[in-house]
Design a protein that fits this description.
The protein folds into 2 domains: 4-109, Rossmann fold (3-Layer(aba) Sandwich), CATH 3.40.50.10850; 128-334, Rossmann fold (3-Layer(aba) Sandwich). 43% of the residues lie in helices and 19% in strands. It is elongated. The chain is an alpha/beta fold. α5 packs antiparallel against α9 (195-202) and α8 (181-191) packs antiparallel against α9 (195-202). The chain has helices at residues 13-26, 39-48, 58-62, 66-72, 99-109, 141-153, 169-173, 181-191, 195-202, 218-221, 226-240, 256-262, 274-289, 293-297, 321-334, and strands spanning 4-9, 31-36, 51-57, 73-80, 92-94, 128-132, 158-162, 204-206, 209-212, 244-248, 265-270, 299-303.
Length: 337
């Protein structure tokens, strides 16, 4: 079966290469990518090949016979270099912005049946879901989850998702996020054909680990159930080619047990004090009452030693005693299963 073609053409070589690198690395699409920095090469190529999508600089398009390009190309986007770049029915995008913004604009313009979406993979088949959940609070759950994710990300494409009602991520990272997990869920429900283009604009990076900013509103998280979150995880895994997804889970999540059931491994952090023991016992009783022994069977209980020091910055968690503890878990439990 012939693979669709996505071509980029710009005579400004450094710009064209940078744009192609971003598209190739950040966007997982079922297209064969072709880069042209000479107009003659593009013209010769489209004489024998049909191009489904062409992103071309305004100056480069002027050097070509536009009608010929239209006949040989299914959809064209022009990278405008001037304010007079409007070309009727051909969408124009300002060239002088980030590659991420260019792709977002393309996503807005593409039709709903564009076929931009990668083949969906049901959650749990190829991607490995790892759940981090404990009924015990203030137990380093998120620190553990981020450390685990950053260590796995050194060798595997890994995504971290935080389901806490109040994660505090923005303040901890001293950042403001324009989009978060609920925006992604909205796109998934309403516009999944273009999710592959939208995902790079939402996914952030911390020390090599991809993450999606947690929801700003606890009420928003309750708008989706476990089944929908699992479908979204499978979709993201296919689009982003993720091997591991770390789920940092919270009590208030609708469908908590649905997510835990699909995890390859679950880590539950415990403490020695009487309240912690009582909470864990109650949680395990609920699992038995609901005949969810499979969750208990996949659960590894972690009781941390007294660490002398834990890194303050979320981007330096791969150093120190906790990181050594987590590396042992990765080697013996995740890789050794």
């Amino acid at each position: 079966m012939r693979q669709k073609i996505f071509a980029i053409c710009d005579t400004e070589e450094a710009y064209a290469v940078r744009l192609m690198e971003y598209v190739h690395e950040k966007v997982r699409l079922p297209y064969a990518f072709h880069l042209f920095t000479r107009v003659e090469e593009l013209q010769k190529f489209i004489q024998s090949e049909k191009v489904e999508l062409l992103l071309i600089a305004e100056s480069a398009l002027r050097m070509l016979k536009e009608e010929f390009v239209r006949r040989q190309t299914e959809q064209i986007f022009v990278l405008s270099e001037s304010e007079e770049a409007g070309r009727g029915d051909i969408p124009c995008i300002s060239k002088f912005q980030s590659p991420q913004a260019i792709l977002e604009t393309m996503a807005e313009s593409m039709g709903g049946t564009s076929g931009w979406d990668a083949k969906e993979t049901p959650a749990g088949e190829k991607v490995k879901l790892i759940g981090i959940y404990s009924p015990v609070k203030r137990c380093l759950q998120t620190t553990f989850a981020l450390t685990l994710g950053q260590i796995l990300a050194r060798e595997h494409r890994t995504l971290y998702l935080n389901f806490e009602n109040y994660s505090g991520f923005g303040q901890m990272l001293q950042r403001e996020f324009s989009k978060d997990m609920m925006d992604l869920m909205y796109y998934f429900r309403c516009d999944r054909d273009r999710l592959a283009l939208r995902l790079p604009a939402i996914v952030q990076d911390i020390n090599g680990l991809d993450y999606i900013p947690p929801a700003r509103s606890a009420a928003g998280m309750r708008e989706a159930d476990g089944r929908q979150w699992l479908e979204l995880c499978g979709h993201i895994a296919a689009v982003g080619e993720y091997e591991y997804i770390i789920l940092d889970l919270d009590d208030g999540l609708d469908g908590l047990f649905d997510l835990l059931r699909q995890c390859r491994r679950i880590y539950t952090i415990t403490k020695e004090d009487s309240f912690a023991v009582a909470k864990l016992n109650q949680y395990e009783q609920i699992l038995r009452f609901n005949e969810l022994e499979e969750i208990a069977d996949k659960t590894v209980k972690c009781r941390f030693p007294a660490f002398k020091e834990i890194p303050v910055g979320l981007d330096s968690l791969t150093y120190g005693e906790l990181a050594g503890y987590v590396r042992a878990i990765v080697k013996e439990d995740i890789y050794g299963e």
